[in-house]
What we know:
The chain is α/β, with parallel strands linked by helices. It is about 40% helix and about 10% strand. The strands form 4 sheets. The chain has a 5-stranded parallel β-sheet with strand order 2-3-6-1-7, with helices on one face. Adenosine-5'-diphosphate binds near residues 31 and 65.
Amino acid sequence: MSADGLVSAAASAEEQAFEAGLRPRTLTEFVGQRKVREQLSIMLEGAQARGRPPDHVLLSGPPGLGKTSLAMIIAEELAVPLRMTSGPAIERAGDLVAILTALSPGEVLFLDEIHRIARPAEELLYAAMEDFRVDVILGKGPGATAIPLDVAPFTLVGATTRSGLLTGPLRDRFGFTAHLDFYAPDELARVLTRSAGLLGVSLTEDGAAEVAGRSRGTPRIANRLLRRVRDYAEVRADGVVTRDVARAALRIYDVDGLGLDRLDRAVLEALVGRFGGGPVGLTTLAVSVGEEPETVEDVAEPFLLRAGLLIRTSRGRVATPAAFEHLGLEPIAEPLGRSQAPLFPDTGLLAEGGLLSGDGLLTESGALPDGGMLPDGGMLPDGS
Ligand SMILES: Nc1ncnc2c1ncn2[C@@H]1O[C@H](COP(=O)(O)OP(=O)(O)O)[C@@H](O)[C@H]1O
Ligand SMILES: [Mg+2]
């Protein structure tokens, strides 16, 4: 029933093709992130005036906020070629040597998920970034020799969802670091209006606002929802995406008023349902939703934090009263987990109109099946 991944921030292969058509190509087309845009633009202009490649750039932030787009824009603004690779693709130092030595002068090298680069390759990168040189080691043990190879001056643009995982030496070699933050609803509305124009979709102002409000602060999600809403508008309405059309469409696709997706909801439901609102450690929480701790931390938490549904404390993750409210539940008296009262007494399991019916989180049939399980393998504790 749920369109899985509809509001996940990661992009599928098919979607990448679609996204390519919507990507902003220049800094002026890039919506929002005003400060980052301004700083970058000054830096790029300065470098161009000096006729030298600009400093290496590190872009951090949750998925779907425009890191790859910015990397492409940097190359575009500098009018230089862009070479794209990613941390996981560089398994051995040799992989990186091959890439670096093939760079042409001034080229931008985009290294996505840079925190996942193999350690030996990372060490090579230090000298490449600093001195435009790589040392290729031939042989092993005492007889090994290092052959220095020149690398053309280039600009490394690194992107990461987890800047905290970068080693100090690597981080220090970036002259410019920018953190991308979630977008405000009016910025997302602008992203949507721009995309609608490119796609030939008629989108009213209130339609854009409605979709923007459910896009989790993330342009990628906004564009994806626009696609679904457009389909609906064409099939079930007169093709115009108004607020009502957007609402009706997103209800069908099971996107709630805050745009929470399956993982977000699973995390919240576990936190509230299994752990009485917390505090609970990240690992325990992740295990209970069947995910890696990093996935919960990088993908679900940033937006839950930002939406004020979850907080991090020294003792673990805690659900806020707003989280209970969003799930259609009464906050328990002592939300910090000291209360051992059963959270879901037999009678109180379903709030009026279904546990998660608040603002269309589930479709109209919001009631739980008898087993007390939520759809999508959701998280209520058995039989409590
Ligand atoms: N600031 C922005 N203005 C307009 N569209 C954006 C912006 N940021 C992201 N997008 C859209 O969102 C999609 C995902 O952005 P992307 O750069 O791939 O994010 P990331 O690399 O951070 O995951 C892009 O295809 C683009 O259409
Ligand atoms: Mg990217």
